[in-house]
Amino acid sequence: MKNRFLIASALCLSTGLSTAAYADFSLSILHLNDLHSRIESINKYDSTCGAEDEAEGKCFGGIARIKTMLDQRRAELEAEGKNVIVVDAGDQFQGSLFYTTYKGDAAVEFANVLGLDAMVVGNHEFDDGPEVLAKFIDKAEFPVISGNIDVSAEPALKGKVPGIVILERGGEKIGIVSALAEDTSETSSPGENVRFIQAEDYLKGAVEGLEAAGINKIIAVTHMGLSRDMEIAAAVPGIDVIVGGHSHTLLSNTQERASGPYPVMVTNPDGNEVPIVQAYAYGKFLGELDVTWDDDGKLLKAEGEPILLDASVTPDEGVAARVAELAAPIEELKAKVIGSSEGAIDGDRGSCRAGECQMGNLVADAMLDRVKDQGVQIAIQNGGGLRASIDGGEVTMGEVLTVLPFQNTLSTFQLKGSDVVAALENGVSQVEEGAGRFPQVAGLKYYWTRKKDPGAGRVLLVEVMEDGNWVPLDPDKVYGVVSNNYMRGGGDGYKVFAENGMNAYDYGPGLEVVVADYIAAKGGYAPYTDGRITEQ
């Protein structure tokens, strides 16, 4: 063993792991995450791609392209004698008219077509409550797992969500453990019967159990986000690889906009390097990580690169035909032109979860405009509720629905100025993690800093528009506020809305209708930012 170690350590990889020795076991992990119902192909703005752009080779992803590349890589790898698994790190639900129309039925139909070996529950799988997730699980031809959730008190899910799956490849057993973001009760709608356990606590026990059973190759497939995955890798011994989702992070060694290398390496409590991978979102990439263990279960190698699913990948004909069949009933709605924009409206996740963005201004302005005659002065919209950009030119209802897919309704209520500040504090408390709670606003101007700890006065100054002038927010004054029903109910950490909101009405028109009407009334919308949110 000593000589083997010397030979292996002399041949180092860029990952910091040693190269393969003699009795090694290699595995290719093909992975997806955060598809968000992008069943059809997407454009450069991550919204549904039109037929013209598809014909011009400008589209990416789509379930038919994913099917082609998955089948191709699986066949090529297996032809080389390699072991292969395919995993999905969650959030199949929510994000396009396919989900609005079919809920989880279309998602599970196409997930079955892909031939997944396992999928973990994402937070958005709870968007329509436990019952819709249960229907998805009942129809799934693969294990749907989530280890750190306790569903024993939820009748719809009891006994349906294991935490671990054991796969066998090449005569070796591979343990797949899983975890879901603990704040899912704030970001989705799991209901009061689903309990969330700290991921590290659960995973330590799960790994120990697998090791006690003689399984020494353990992969965590998580829906936690990259920063949490790094914390888990550093805290939990025995996890060899983490395949993640939730933060929509592009890790790559070749893509210009990558947030880090593929894989990211983190040292665990035993001093071993743990590779972490994620492959952006919306089906634009298929992740491929090749890992090798020695016969003692020590990880020796981890290398790979996500595959860009661009026009060079021919969509699978059968899948494309089925997608078109399911798309037919919603094409008329999608195609309806409701107005136009003088330029692209930026709704990028990176923009709208970290500062003022054009889409945030459009949506917040539209909300405030709708209720301005009701004594409402302030609009607050969560950046995470904005799911796509819109390109310039004609704007269709389909594009608006892609930006605002959650079927949220307008909510109006009254709130003291001090509670408005508390709401903004919550909104900027997790900006480093790219959390969806970041507040886009109208009728309000605020200055904030990330130089202070979350909740410790990050919001420096708040001003409100009164009689055409910006004046300091009065902490004791009661203001009229408009938001969406998800936030008003305490979603994304906005508990102050639920607990302190007065005279609330949560059943206004759909947010997508409000925004579509606003664009239509403009006769040509001009995207803009104006400094209403300033980071200092």
Domains, number:
2
Number of helices: 17
Largest sheet: 7 strands, mixed
Unreliable segments of 5+ consecutive residues: 1-16
Output the CATH homologous superfamily of the largest domain.
Metallo-dependent phosphatases
Structural description of this entry:
The chain has 536 residues and is an alpha/beta fold. It has two domains: 12-321, Purple Acid Phosphatase, chain A, domain 2; 337-535, Alpha-Beta Complex (5'-nucleotidase,  domain 2), CATH 3.90.780.10. It is built from 17 helices and 26 strands. Strands 1, 2, 3, 4, 13, 14 and 15 form a seven-stranded mixed beta sheet that branches. The longest helix has 19 residues, at 317-335. The radius of gyration is 24 Å and the shape is globular. The chain starts with a helix and ends with a strand. The model is unreliable at 1-16 (pLDDT under 50).
Keywords for this structure?
Purple Acid Phosphatase, chain A, domain 2, 17 helices, 5'-nucleotidase,  domain 2, 30% helix, alpha/beta, 6-stranded mixed sheet, disordered N terminus, 536 residues
Short note summarizing the structure:
The chain has 536 residues and is of the alpha/beta class. The chain has two domains: 12-321, Metallo-dependent phosphatases (Purple Acid Phosphatase, chain A, domain 2), CATH 3.60.21; 337-535, 5'-nucleotidase,  domain 2. Strands 1, 2, 3, 4, 13, 14 and 15 form a seven-stranded mixed beta sheet that branches. The protein has a six-stranded mixed beta sheet with strand order 6-7-9-10-12-11, covered by helices on one side. Strands 20-17-24-19-25 form a five-stranded mixed beta sheet, sandwiched between helices.
